[in-house]
Amino acid sequence: MQAVLEVAWDDNVESFEESRLIKRLEEKMGVCRRDHLVLEALVTKRAPVSGQEVEETIRALTYEGLVCQFKHQGSSQLVVPDEIAAHLRTAFTIVLQSAAYRNLAMKLPTATIRSVLEKTGQPSVALKKEFLIDRLIDGDISPTVLLENADDPALDGLFFAFPELKKPTMRAVKVRHLIAHFDRVTTKSTDAAPEDPDKVYYDYLVELASRDYDVLRAANVIHRDQNVDRFFERAVRFAFRELLGHPSAEFTGSAHADGGSIARNGRMALWDCKSCIGSYALTESKCRQFLDYVHRERPAVVDPFLVISAGFSSESAGRALTLKAMCPPGTEVGLLSADDLKWLSEKWSKEHPGKRLPLDVLGSSGLLSRDVLEFRLKTFAHLAEDATTS
């Protein structure tokens, strides 16, 4: 294999045919992708692809209209149109992206994964499932091969985890439906350590708020639908604690808001998380409940009281203003979408690292749209204090 690579790299593997030939040779000799990269590094005495080569390739692909490159929030983004991506994936035999493949494999029994690895000559002696899945991906073992080797109970278990998926009768159709489902579901990669699951919940803050069960189950964020509300609350607390610089206050008893943070001068923030499919409607009964939460914290002034959800019905903004009029003087009642909370958290932590977001930014009644947040950020950002200041 190394000798073939040396010949191919004499002219820098200039053609697609050469690449396919190397790929076929890998399959014939049982060389996985990771080992290929090691051999390539030995042959070329450098990393297989340099940063300059990546830039030149991106420029060439952009010129040919295969990718689109643009700036978003200060960083470069690359996008491949769906129509082109489908052909590229077919040419390079890419069935699932790594994140989607990993999520699929995590839902299969370890014994199934180990059996497939043994049949394809890959190391399978590890006890940890994560390592075995790494070998599936690095060994270029197709998700189709993995599912075709799974027994019927394992395949049926996948359909049981996604009750909205219709379970076909034919086994081959089951495999196609499962691959299409995991391909369709959006997944995110995360660098969160296992001991910090709140970071994972924060990454899926918008999906938790909107109860996007397909995405949450496929990405292994939830295992039961009942987890959504609790994980949504933890994601919001993470945003305030780690990105906005406001550690959560501890509440006792049961009749209290989902979270809050104590500020200086007798002022505090409270928030209540309402996950829902569609738009959340702030009703009169909920207003009475929230009013009790505000009165519970007296003599502290609650400014702001935030309702955080996926989105809000058209009449909710008016009810928020009515609730403000019923609250003690100084209280502001704001409606904040999960998407805008995430935008605010990341913008603030990037532009003001180590600083605590002034509550004045959120101290406005009604719908806290992104335009409102932008304006209030410009107005009150100069009041920021160090997050470590007590």
Tell me what you see in this structure.
This protein is α/β, with parallel strands linked by helices. Helices cover 51% and strands 11% of the residues. It is built from 19 helices and nine strands. The strands form three sheets. Strands 3-4-5-6-8 form a five-stranded mixed sheet. Strands 1-2 form a two-stranded antiparallel ribbon. The model is unreliable at 190-194 (pLDDT under 50).
Question: What secondary-structure arrangement, pairings included, does this model have?
Answer:
Layout: H1 2-8, H2 16-29, H3 33-44, H4 51-63, E1 68-72, E2 75-79, H5 82-91, H6 98-106, H7 110-119, H8 129-138, H9 143-148, H10 152-161, H11 171-184, H12 197-203, H13 205-209, H14 213-218, H15 227-243, E3 259-262, E4 267-274, H16 284-296, E5 301-309, H17 316-326, E6 333-337, H18 338-351, E7 355-356, E8 366-367, H19 370-380, E9 385-386
Parallel strand pairs: 4-5, 5-6, 6-8
Antiparallel strand pairs: 1-2, 3-4, 7-9
Helix pairs in contact: 6-8, 7-8, 10-11, 12-15, 15-18, 16-17
From the structure above, extract its key features.
390 residues, alpha/beta, five-stranded mixed sheet, 19 helices, elongated
What class would the helix/strand composition place it in? alpha/beta
Going across the biggest sheet, name each strand in turn. 3-4-5-6-8
Beta fraction: 5-15%
What profile does the largest beta sheet have? 5 strands, mixed
Termini separation = 63 Å
In DSSP terms (H or I, runs of 4 or more residues), the helix count works out at 19
- Average residue pLDDT: 81
Uncertain segments are 190-194
Number of strands: 9
Could you tell me the radius of gyration in angstroms?
26 Å
Helicity range: 40-55%
Series of secondary-structure elements, N-terminal to C-terminal: HHHHEEHHHHHHHHHHHEEHEHEHEEHE
**Outline, from the CA principal axes?**
elongated
